[in-house]
Specification:
The protein is 79% helix and 0% strand.
Length: 126
């Protein structure tokens, strides 16, 4: 069995990470607009600098999250074992975002951690 098929649950989870990546990358692009507007505002220089730094930090974090989600989605799509582990880590990070994040996190942990079909797709034993 050299070419393993991708289970539907893995496909759905991969698409979820692509959607998350798209949202994060779009959000980082949208956040660039206020940074540009700050350059033409009449706010005091110190305030503009602090606001620009904070917005820049937000763009950087959001961009990083978007790229990581894109990589995890790609890894799940291609059935990379590291992506299965990354999805389990992200599932734990989803838990505090009640109710949707909690449901997605629990579902991901159950499916990727215990479901034989998912584990077999990634070559995980047990």
């Amino acid at each position: 069995m050299s070419e393993k098929s991708r289970p539907d649950g893995v496909t759905i989870l991969s698409l979820w990470y692509f959607v998350l990546a798209g949202g994060a990358l779009f959000g980082s692009c949208v956040t660039l607009v206020p940074i540009g507007l700050l350059s033409v505002s009449d706010m005091p220089t110190g305030g503009r600098l602090i606001a620009s730094l904070l917005l820049g930090l937000g763009v950087t974090i959001t961009l990083f999250v978007g790229v990581v989600c894109l990589l995890v989605g790609w890894g799940l799509w291609n059935k990379a074992e590291w992506a299965r582990v990354a999805s389990l880590i992200f599932a734990v990070l989803h838990l505090p975002f009640f109710p949707v994040g909690t449901a997605i996190g629990i579902g991901t942990m159950w499916y990727m951690g215990t479901h034989p079909e998912a584990k077999a797709a990634f070559g995980a034993s047990g």
